[in-house]
Design goal:
heterodimer, A: mainly alpha, B: mainly alpha, 0% strand, rod-shaped
Amino acid sequence: MAILSVWKWFHQLGAPRSFYQLSSRLLPWFVAATVLCLAVGIIWALLFVPPDYQQGHTVRIMYIHVPTAILAQSSYMMMATAGAVFLVWRIKLADVALQCAAPIGASITFLALATGAIWGKPTWGTWWVWDARLTSTLVLLFLFVGVMALRNAMQGQQSAARATAILSLVGVVNLPIIKFSVNWWFTLHQPASLSLTEKPAMPVEMWLPLLVMVVGFYLLFFTLWMMRMRNEILVREYRTDWVRTLVQAP
Amino acid sequence: MFDSIEGFLAMGGHGLYVWSTYLMALLVITGNCVAPVLTRRREIARQRAAQLQEQVR
């Protein structure tokens, strides 16, 4: 029956070995695409984007800050989705995904906050303000770190998996707050210039390299995620024949 | 966009801000790339040693 084969494929996707084999084939392409995208984006941002009328050359910071800020939120969403998949379907690979997403998400969120602060000093006159967006993004960082800390603190793979999945889901409420805070509250942080449905509020010379950097950072996230998941699979599946054989390979 | 290399480094007086963000990004990205590679090597070495231990017994 068709339903049965779709179900089988879904479950197959969740088999650590299948993921490991698939990622072995995908990884070189992801690495190449990431390097290419980020290299093009960074050179473009540093050398070819015109200085802003008001901000001057500090606008170049946007090309790190905005992609990392976007990714901070979406990587959390991906991590929480992995948590939900684990809780609902008990797919172990989802727990691997959750565990491995957290440290990457934490460093990306840190980068977003730090570059935002550095951008704020010359443009707003301040490193930090406790407005809704900045504060909720700081909370996002704490959530990522919290998932990592909770994992380390708990005894037992199953309990740690369940607890971190629940924590990641509870934290999802923070995401709409980050996203819509600039509309809900009068805040120092500017409202969105980019949306999925409307024309961007910036010229193409500015948003095209931004798009390249956003794509580059997404590729980077998936590449890093794959690398970490592969390691975690080797750790968890060390007793299996395929891993035992694999580690012996030169 | 820039008249000279000095201009490129100066970034219109905002050089410190712009370059510190890009340097920070470089460090974070590099660290995130290196860490899993080192972990992989360590883990494979650890498992090889463990398998040798089993054979010895």
